[in-house]
Amino acid sequence: MKIKLYSVIYFLNSYLSGLLIPVLSLLLIEKGASLSNLSIILGLYALTVVILELPTGIMADIFGRKKTFCISLIISATSFMVILFGRGFIIMCIGMMLYGLNRALASGSFDALFIDYYIDNFGKEKLHNITTRLSVLEALGLSTGAISGGFFPKVSAYYFPDLGTYDLNLIIRILLTVTVAVLSIIFITEAKKVEKHERISIKQHVKNSSSFVMENTTVICIFISVFSTGFFLSSLETYWQPHFISLLPDKGMMGLLGLMAFLYLGAAMLGSIVSNKLIKKYKFNSKKMYLTLRLLLALSLIFTALQTNIPSFISLYASIYLLFGMANIPEGAILNGETPSEIRASVLSTYSFIFQIGGLSGSILYSVIINYVSIPNIWIIAACIVLITVAITFKKFLSNSSEVSIETNK
After folding, report:
1. Structural domain boundaries of the chain?
2. Closest among 143, 147, 137, 149 to 173, alpha carbons compared
3. Domain 1-186 is in which class?
4. What's the pLDDT tens digit per position in 352-386?
5. Does the domain at residues 208-410 carry the CATH identifier 1.20.1250.20?
């Protein structure tokens, strides 16, 4: 029952994130932002998340994951009330920076709590199951939220003409956020750990977390791969739409953009499910499976870049997200299997932080080289970065396995 309740909370929280995906920029413009300062508002949001990602992860580990997650929901409701009732550039900046604080607080806190509960009840050997569950719930929540978020403005125009075009999205988001907060307060329980000493200081926690990461070759390898994930996803998300449009023989086929969005979200979710079933049935080694899938992902990105017709581009583009979803399962199982419970939220926040740094690095690089190279060439460059990280990770994993074998023989 607890697993089902946690799953409902996780799904609803992902649904909340999806609600504004199709309308966020339009909403901010309606609230007084201009095309020229829209990027500043969204940039401040992203910067807030990046700056606060690590401190909030540490906060979750030291002061409690449930408290941190519930605080994030309260701040989320506050941020969108500011946007709902406010207007103008400054107010939108404040609202989006509060939203960034919410995202930083939520990142890793409930995930860590859910994963710890699962490990306590089912053991580390079933980690791939909880990783798959979280991945599928997130994809379902985001896609369902995005679909309904695009539908609510029509409902608002028909039934609530006095509201702003996108105000219904905000109202539903606020009400559901309050609902999730109430469910979390009532049903989420955080195990009380027996403490032999006084609560660890923030300084000592940072020192312990840093030492763990720096001394664990496997975790470093995962973080290197995560950086390349942010790097290549940034190139796809930024340029797939203009490139896809350039391939269309008829502008009347623009409806295929919606099909593409549905396909890659569905492919990522399907990949997670397939990966979990393969691990269960064939007992694959997580590290070998992870490396193989990352290699195939990079090759799919290269082949996608070389396509010049719509059917092959769509199928190969979907295959990238299928392999991405498949690789996420062994990646999550490896990372959470290596990470001690007491620093899990900090490590997961570091994971998210590195992912965002990878995406930001890619965006900066692409904004420069797009003036000199084509979009397919940018994707090939991104694929090469993934291949380099696969080579590095393979070497480190191999040396790790050798060290374990030597210790075992001794």
Report:
1. 1-186, 208-410
2. 149
3. mainly alpha
4. 899 989 988 888 888 889 889 999 999 999 999 99
5. yes
